[in-house]
UniProtKB/TrEMBL annotation:
Domain Acyl-CoA dehydrogenase/oxidase C-terminal stretches: 293-438
PANTHER family: ACD11 DEHYDROGENASE, ACYL-COA DEHYDROGENASE
Family to which the UniProt record says this protein belongs: Belongs to the acyl-CoA dehydrogenase family.
Pfam families linked: Acyl-CoA_dh_1, Acyl-CoA_dh_M, AidB_N
A Gene Ontology molecular function term of the record: acyl-CoA dehydrogenase activity
Listed name of the protein: DNA alkylation response protein
Length: 555
């Protein structure tokens, strides 16, 4: 039944707005053949047990969680700085829509210890299911993904290793519902910046078994959490991670003040704030022996894990943008036929499908396969940026409607803009690639993996070319080598994605469609198109577009 009044000029079916259902309200598991392919492959015999859970989760993410995300974006968290007596309480008040979504997510939490135990009992890998959970959540709200998953595993693992027993017990209580309970926050960035540790000013001095930590963190996400990992400087000058809880060991309020919440462009469902530590009780999360206090190695490992989370956010936005684009292009008509039948629109959608599936291959490979040292930086480099470009494409597909906040793609673009910043921008990622190659020879196992995945002559040849490019890069002057890190990293990503897509084609789970995706990606990124830029190439099979869409989105 229509909920709107019929207007005098409603003279054609083009005004039947009920035809314009986007992604919201759909089951995101049921309409995603690419995710089903990945789960069948990575879960193996456990897929049959997991499928009903994934189906229920797909309905939850596309329904309640997606609807709550829109409401929270319009009514974000607020800060109650003082109580009625004028005392600092620094209480972040989350909107009802956020609390409703979080409760539903915690009741169906694939990252909870109890769910992981049940999954193992049925032969299903918990890490694979956790990746699917975050992938679907990030399509609805990457802000919620940040609010639930900002370093919970970091807090628990470091506290178990370094914190006193009573503090460890407190941390266990806080995270009883799993790492994705929304109780953790990472606080690194200061007014001087977030990447240059030499400029860090927060300081911690020992007070017996604990430390007294003071300083200001400029951009701290999930400020409404209960357990924080804070970078601060030791008296000897080294930088180290510290655990700060909202309450002291004796149960009194800790020296943590929230100055204000950030008025952000997007991701409004995560409360980001300026947080001041005023003699806060803190516990060192690194070795206490001489020279071990910096904790830089520990922080790099944890940062790389977080980078994979941000890469998943970029992928989630890109996937949502793709679905919204296909839905709209099927319903909208121009020049006498739907947009999806127009040649230029088919080109744009085909390219978007291929790029999203290439990023998906890398993100899931990095989450569920043995970790490659280079993978987090490379995958984030591509996936975070793809979220921005895919959201921009979705706005273009929607035309003027896409620029309006009542339509979903405007928020997608606002949210996506933060992913290239979180956990290091492109330049910082490239510097990490350099560090990994020079100090850990990380390019060697990376190249070995690419050789084991590639099947075509084209991709195999590009793996060899990449090896030569890395060798040439090593011989460059340091300044020139740094300048050329970005194109080298992009080359790495292109070959990595192409090899993974070819490997997926070998799985034989989709009647050859993935081989088409692999070929189109390799041709776009790795082939020499000649002086005519490929204009003289033979036309492709007209049916390929239909195959691409049918294997990407089932509506």
């Amino acid at each position: 039944m229509r909920r709107y009044l019929t207007e005098p000029f409603d003279g054609s079916d083009r005004y039947a707005t009920e035809r314009y259902q986007g992604a919201a309200g759909r089951n995101w598991w049921a309409c995603d053949p690419t995710l089903r392919l990945l789960m069948r492959r990575h879960l193996g015999d456990g897929f049959a047990w997991a499928e009903p859970h994934l189906d229920r989760l797909g309905a939850l993410m596309g329904g309640l969680v997606a609807a709550c995300a829109e409401e929270t974006d319009r009514n974000p968290p607020r800060l109650e700085k003082y109580d009625k007596w004028g005392r600092d309480v620094s209480q972040v008040v989350m909107p009802p829509s956020f609390l409703t979504a979080r409760q539903a997510l915690m009741e169906d939490n694939f990252t909870a210890p109890s769910f992981a135990e049940e999954a193992r009992a049925h032969g299903a890998d918990p890490s694979t299911l956790a990746a699917a959970w975050t992938y679907l959540l990030d399509q609805a709200d990457i802000g919620m993904g940040c609010a639930l998953g900002t370093g919970g595993d970091m807090v628990v693992s470091l506290a178990e290793k370094y914190a006193p027993e009573d503090v460890r017990e407190k941390v266990r209580e806080i995270f009883a519902n799993g790492f994705y309970s929304g109780e953790a926050a990472q606080m690194f960035t200061e007014r001087t910046g977030g990447s240059d540790l030499a400029a860090l000013e927060a300081a911690a001095v020992p007070t017996g078994e604990a430390f007294s930590l003071s300083g200001l963190k400029w951009f701290a996400s999930n400020a409404n959490g209960s357990a924080f990992v804070v970078l601060a400087r030791l008296p000897e000058g080294e930088v180290a991670p510290f655990l700060v809880l909202w309450e002291r060991r004796d149960g009194t309020r800790n020296g943590v003040r929230i100055r204000r919440l950030k008025d952000k462009l997007g991701t409004r469902s995560v409360a980001s704030a300026e947080v001041e530590f005023a003699g806060a009780e803190a516990f060192l999360l690194a070795g206490s022996e001489p020279g071990a206090g910096s904790g830089i190695g520990t922080m790099m490992k944890l940062t790389n894990a977080s980078r994979l989370g941000v890469a998943m956010m970029g992928l989630g936005v890109a996937r949502r943008a793709l679905v919204e684009s296909i839905c709209y292009a099927r319903a909208r008509e121009a020049f006498g036929r739907p947009l999806i039948e127009q040649p230029l629109m088919r080109r744009k959608l085909a390219e978007l499908i291929v790029e999203v599936e290439a990023a998906q291959a890398m993100v899931f490979d990095a989450h569920v396969s043995p970790r490659l040292r280079l993978a987090p930086a490379l995958v984030k480099l591509r996936a975070a940026r793809l979220g921005v470009t895919a959201a921009g494409d979705a706005i273009e597909v929607h035309g003027g409607n896409g620029y309006i906040e009542q339509w979903p793609v405007a928020r997608l673009l606002r949210d996506a803009q933060v992913n290239p910043i979180w956990e290091g921008g492109d330049n910082i990622l490239c510097l990490d690639v350099r560090r990994a190659m020079l100090k850990e020879q990380a390019h060697l196992p990376f190249l070995d993996r690419l050789r084991s995945l590639a099947t075509s002559d084209l991709v195999g040849a590009r793996v060899d070319d990449l090896a030569k490019a890395i060798e040439t890069w090593h011989a460059l002057d340091r300044e020139v080598a740094e300048e050329r890190l970005y194109p080298l990293a992009q080359f790495m990503v292109d070959v990595y994605a192409a090899a993974l897509l070819e490997d997926q084609a070998r799985w034989g789970l989709d009647d050859g469609r993935k081989a088409l995706v692999a070929r189109l990606y390799a041709e776009a990124h790795l082939m020499d198109h000649g002086p005519l830029r490929g204009l003289d190439r033979p036309a492709g099979n007209p049916g390929h577009f239909d195959d691409l869409v049918a294997g990407a989105v089932t509506l």
